[in-house]
Structure formats: C-alpha cells, structure tokens
Amino acid sequence: MAPAQPLRLARLIVILFCSLTLLLPTAAWAGLPPGNAVTDPAALLRDALPFDQPDLRELQHLLEHTDADLRASRWSVIRRNCQRAVSQLPRLDARVGGDLEAKGVSDRDQLDQLAADLRAVCAASQGQGDRDAFLAVREAALADIGAIETQLVDGFPFEIPAEFDALPRLLGRATVELETSKGRITTIVDGYNAPLTAGAYVDLVQRGFYDGLPFDRAEQFYVLQTGNPGGAADGFVDPDSGEERNVPLEIRIPGERDPFYNLTFEELGLYKAVPTLPFSSYGTLGWAHSDRALDDGSSQFFMFLFQPQLTPAGLNLIDGRYAAFGYVVDGFTVLQELGADDRIIEARVIEGGDGLRAHA
C-alpha cells in the first residue's frame, strides 16, 4: 500500500489539463475558476485565520490588493487607498481595540504601531513613489495586521469528529524549521484548518522521524517529497500499537465550519471550490496518500513547486485531491536547489509546539 507515487494520477491530469486549456475557446475558459489567486504564503495564512473582525480584514485586503496597482505604476490610486485606510484609523482603533479588550488583551501597542506603519505606507506612496520603500513599509503594516488578527482568534473553530480521537492534532499554528543538505527552510503549519494533518506532521517532527530522511521524489516544477522511512513500512508505525498510523484526507473550504474528511471536491460536487489552504504558493506543504485510497497517508509529505504556467493558482487539479497543511515562508532559494540527492538533516519545531495534543 505504498504511497511511493501518490501524485502520479494528479500529475497526469494536470499535464493533460494544461494542454487542453490551450485548445479551449474563450467562452469555455471563462467558465473556469480565476487563475489570479493569492500566491503569497503570508497573505494565504492571514486569510486562513479564523477570526471575525471585518474592518481589519478589509484593511488587510486593501493593502494586499495594491500589488496590481504597483505593477501598473498607478501611484495615484495607491495614494487614494492609503488615505482611505488612514481615515479609517479612528473607527478601526475603537472597534478592534474593543474586540481585543473583550478578549482580555489590553495592550494597545500593536494598534499604535499599525497606525504609525500605515502613515509610513502613505508617505512612501507620495510623488512617483519608491516601489522598494513602499513594499518594505507595507510589509511591516501587514505584519502588524497579522499579529492583531492572531490575537483575535477566539479558540479552536470546530469540533474534530470522535472517530479520529486517537490521532494527534495541532490546535493552532506551529513554525517548523527543516535543516536540509542545501540549507534551512522555514515552514508554518496550520492546525486551525488542517488539525489532524498538521498534528501528525508536528508529532513526527518532535519524534525526530524526519531527521536524516532523503527527498525520495523530486520532479522539477512539480513536487519535492520526503517522509518514506527505511524498511518495509511506507509510513510511521506507532510503537504502542505496532501498526502504521494513517491520517484522513482533510480539506476545509471558506464558508464551511468543519473540514471535509476523505472526500475529494469531485465527490462533493465542488468543481470550482478553492480550499482555505490552497496549493497556490511555491512551497505549499501537502500530505501524500496513495492512488488507491484517500486515508492511507501516514508520514510522507511534499512541497508543491508551484509554477503559474503549469499549475496555475486557482486552476490546478491538486486542490481538493490532497490536503495542504501549511506553507514555506522562508528559504525559497534553498527549496529551488533541493533534489533527489538531498535530505533533511534535522526537522525541529521552533514555535507553537505547545498546541500539539497526542489525542482528543
């Protein structure tokens, strides 16, 4: 039951799909999901946070959506949007500050820092604008927003089905570093939206399971995979039970309170759905399973080598067939250099490990 080639079918479908789209008439292409989805891992992680504060979310998107105006050098539009954002600061301060206080967070330093960084964003947009300077201060403001949004998360957003009580789960987020033979990669795994998948991964990292394992599958522009242990087993054998531990396919979509388990988007009839954690960023973390079953993933994971031309965001056919559970956020140059001759030297949890539970 080896998930040795867990993405073979999906890869074939992707190649056929990309070839066929070149032959589709414009009207047929127009009915497909948009291909200009979010590809920045930090933005994807902000969007995936389960909190209810529309004013802050609106400000986040206002800043993120300046990308299109930057590419077209529409500085006048950027200036207007910056001024609009600054004009909303008093209302934002009152509403977000009130929500933070209701959660028992009384420190307003982060709100003051956000206000200062927003004004710096506006200043950087003046005149013809300096793109690099603007991006630097915008990143700082978005980091402020992300930090505040994290504080606004109100507990874990749903109940995990009792049938999975024996499996580990991550009730939040964790930062995991992969020290590889080419250098260091930093990942953030998201237990808010994939608690069982992220929980299995973090549990194995803490056990030292991945230390020394090779990247046994490296396909340029597609995936880099590891997690296949030596010996007869294809995954992690639980020392207590003596059996291989399996993790269900787990995918959450916006607007649904709970994830779907062991069902693909095709089986659900969700042909145009986009997961809360989509495969739309270079280095998206995905959990492997075999072509024969959806629930036999055990320890093997892959980093999706997103390429807009081959696997466009919002159009690739891996979404809804495999579970994404996090993103590479640093070390992209290292990821580009890794191949089948490389390995993980050490994997370690550097933040968020206290959110791991061994079982329900």
Describe it.
The chain has 360 residues and is of the alpha+beta class. The protein folds into two domains: 39-150, Up-down Bundle (Four Helix Bundle (Hemerythrin (Met), subunit A)), CATH 1.20.120; 160-355, Beta Barrel (Cyclophilin). It has twelve helices and twelve strands. The chain starts with 7 loop residues before the first helix and ends with a strand. Mean pLDDT is 88; it is low at 13-35.
Q: Could you give the distance between the termini? A: 27 Å
CATH topology of the largest domain: Cyclophilin
Tally of discrete structural domains: 2
Order of helices and strands: HHHHHHHHHEEEHEEEEHEEEHEE
CATH architecture of the largest domain: Beta Barrel
Count every beta strand, where a strand is a DSSP E run of 2 or more residues.
12
Bulk shape: globular
Q: Which structural class matches the secondary elements?
A: alpha+beta
Biggest beta sheet attributes: 8 strands, antiparallel
Query: What is the CATH class designation of the largest domain?
Result: Mainly Beta
Query: How much strand?
Result: 15-25%
Average pLDDT, rounded to a whole number, is 88
Enzyme class: isomerase
Keywords: Isomerase, Rotamase, Thylakoid
EC number: 5.2.1.8
Protein name: peptidylprolyl isomerase
